[in-house]
Design a protein that fits this description.
Layout lengths: L3 E2 L4 E3 L1 H4 L15 H10 L5 H4 L7 H14 L3 E3 L5 E10 L2 E13 L8 E2 L6 H14 L1 E2 L3 E5 L5 H9 L6 E4 L5 E7 L2 H10 L5 E5 L1 H16 L11 E8 L6 E3 L2 E4 L7 H8 L3 E6 L5 H10 L4 E7 L2 E7 L4 H5 L5 H4 L2 H11 L6 H6 L3 E4 L2 H9 L5 E4 L5 H9 L10 E3 L9 E2 L4
Parallel strand pairs: 6-11, 8-12
Antiparallel strand pairs: 1-5, 2-3, 4-5, 4-10, 5-12, 7-21, 8-11, 9-10, 13-20, 14-18, 14-19, 15-17, 16-17, 16-19
Helix pairs in contact: 4-5, 5-8
């Protein structure tokens, strides 16, 4: 099953580089070009120059040169001995202050077919090519993959909590009011216990599918080109591992906005939904989230179909058994996902937006922001939007366990892990 190990993490020497807050950044795929430039202006040593390189003719080659320079100057240093890192994020979600805590370690990458590490979403090839080129140029992981594990007795979480009773080695609060804390665990007995904990576990990828598939490709590339052999550090990827039943886990929904659809007609959509859905009309979005939340608690499959100027319709599936007829070739876990219901019965059957269209985002745009899903329609940028409830963590587990994947943009784990607190320099054991 899952093989994890300690590693000599690469970190910033804050005496030389500046305060940690100015050196870290969010994941590369949610940073705009304006934000990227702002991070560099704040501190020229910001990790964004490695994680999202845009300098030079060959941006990946330049990232490798910057990495070499920072290491030679002592801006980036390595742990004296192998460590496992406890990482906590404290944040606001659903009008409450929460926190989620797990460990960062190297994890041996395995093909999905082996059933040790399981995906839950489809990926895009463009993002994988970018991450592969960056790994070839730097031989590093600058950010972690986010994975979940099952532990009914919470033995690992108990160990993590015990090891993080002291003050964190590093702590800062970012501009989104997320507090990041890092503890460095080098006690060999504790590390051995954590490694043993995972010996009979599977891992479920929560966030970072592109990076995981890239890690597999990079491992194979290194073996094929004589750079590494089986068992070398290229077989491992830096991951953040969190108990699937951690009380601080938060998954936000990703809403769908429809644009540029030929012959779009609100009444036609509603008429096409009548056979499958109970339909209730509302004239204000002020109570939308409350109503959707109530449906969610009752286990109902409901969406808000927003048409603009406050007008929206609550669509609630009448009978889940219809999904067995619509998607006979997938498991009940996949059939019963809210996104499966929305995609198959409404977007495909009623609106003519097929799977290829969705994958290429021809008529669909995705957002995790409720306000954007509403305002985009009100401004006339979109024809309508569908507001969803979040996917449950147990649903993610069940789909992955069935060897299946959800549609793209089915989940949004919040918050995103910060990049730059600790990095995996693959060339350093």
């Amino acid at each position: 099953m899952a093989v994890i190990k300690a590693f000599r993490g690469m970190r910033f020497d804050t005496d030389k580089a500046g305060e940690l807050k100015s050196l870290c950044c969010p994941p590369y795929d949610i940073i705009s070009e304006k934000e990227r430039k702002e991070f560099i202006a704040q501190n020229p040593y910001n990790v964004i120059r490695l994680e999202l390189p845009k300098e030079g003719e060959d941006v990946y080659l330049r990232a490798g040169e910057v990495l070499d320079l920072w290491r030679s100057k002592g801006v980036l240093i390595h742990e004296d001995k192998p460590a496992v890192y406890v990482y906590e994020m404290e944040f606001n979600a659903y009008n409450k202050r929460r926190s989620v805590k797990g460990i960062i370690a190297r994890v041996k990458v395995e093909e999905f077919s082996k059933g040790v590490i399981l995906p839950h979403e489809f990926t895009l090839s463009k993002a994988k090519a970018d991450r592969f080129n960056l790994m070839k140029a730097t031989n590093c992981n600058f950010s972690q993959i986010y994975a979940l594990y099952m532990d009914e007795a919470h033995t690992t979480l108990n160990t993590i909590d015990e090891q993080s009773k002291t003050d964190a080695a590093y702590q800062f609060t970012d501009d989104d009011n997320i507090t990041h804390r890092l503890w460095i665990i080098t006690d060999e007995a504790v590390i051995a216990k954590l490694i043993a904990d995972f010996a009979d576990r599977k891992l479920y990828i929560a966030d970072g599918h592109h990076r995981y598939e890239t890690a597999l490709n990079y491992r194979d590339y290194c073996r094929e080109n004589g750079i590494s052999k089986e068992g070398d550090a290229q077989d491992y990827q830096m991951m953040y591992l969190v108990d699937m039943e951690h009380p601080g886990l938060v998954v936000f929904p990703t809403h769908r906005l429809v644009r540029d659809l030929k012959d779009f007609d609100k009444d036609k959509v509603l008429d096409g939904c009548k056979d499958y859905f109970e339909i209730e009309q509302y004239g204000s979005v002020g109570n939308m989230n409350t109503i959707l939340g109530k449906q969610y608690k009752e286990g109902k499959k409901s969406f808000a179909f927003y048409c603009g100027k406050g007008e929206w319709y609550l669509l609630t599936l009448k009978d889940i058994s219809v999904m067995g007829e619509v998607l006979p070739d997938v498991s009940p876990a996949s059939q019963q996902l809210d996104v499966s219901v929305l995609h198959s019965l409404i977007l495909e059957r009623t609106m003519g937006i097929d799977k290829e269209n969705m994958a290429n985002q021809i008529n669909l745009t995705y957002t995790k922001f409720f306000e954007e899903a509403i305002m985009g329609v009100d401004k006339g940028e979109f024809q309508c939007s569908f507001i969803l409830n979040p996917t449950r963590v147990t649903e993610i587990r069940d789909v992955a366990a069935a060897g299946e994947k959800m549609p793209q943009k089915s989940t949004y784990f919040y918050p995103k892990m910060i990049t730059g607190m600790v990095m995996n320099d693959i060339g350093v054991d």
